[in-house]
Design a protein that fits this description.
Strand order of the largest sheet: 1-2-3-4
Distance between the termini: 15 Å
Order of helices and strands: EHEEE
Radius of gyration: 13 Å
Number of strands: 4
Helix content: 10-25%
Structural class: mainly beta
Shape: elongated
Oligomer: single chain
Number of helices: 1
Strand content: over 45%
Largest sheet: 4 strands, antiparallel
């Protein structure tokens, strides 16, 4: 049920690194699309607002690299 049509409201809490470096399976795609970097797949809990206006706390996953920032965020599951 991954959803991409949302906006993170406020800070992401309880942030954990899931994978780093060669463990990031789409690293080649990320390097080609966003530039070379020390890519990490991360997860955390955030308040999100969907396109339809509904708000919920959810587990969010994303990729990030120093100097590039956070990309490809998606909601994995709602917590409420």
């Amino acid at each position: 049920m991954a959803r991409y049509d949302f906006e993170v409201i406020g800070e992401i809490e309880v942030v954990e690194t899931i994978a780093r470096g060669s463990s990031v399976r789409i690293r080649h795609f990320l390097n080609q699309t966003y530039g070379r970097g020390d890519w990490r797949k991360r997860k955390g809990i955030a308040l999100v607002r969907y396109e339809d206006g509904r708000m919920s706390r959810a587990e969010v996953h994303w990729f990030e690299a120093h100097g590039i920032g956070r990309v490809l965020q998606k909601v994995i599951r709602e917590i409420d």
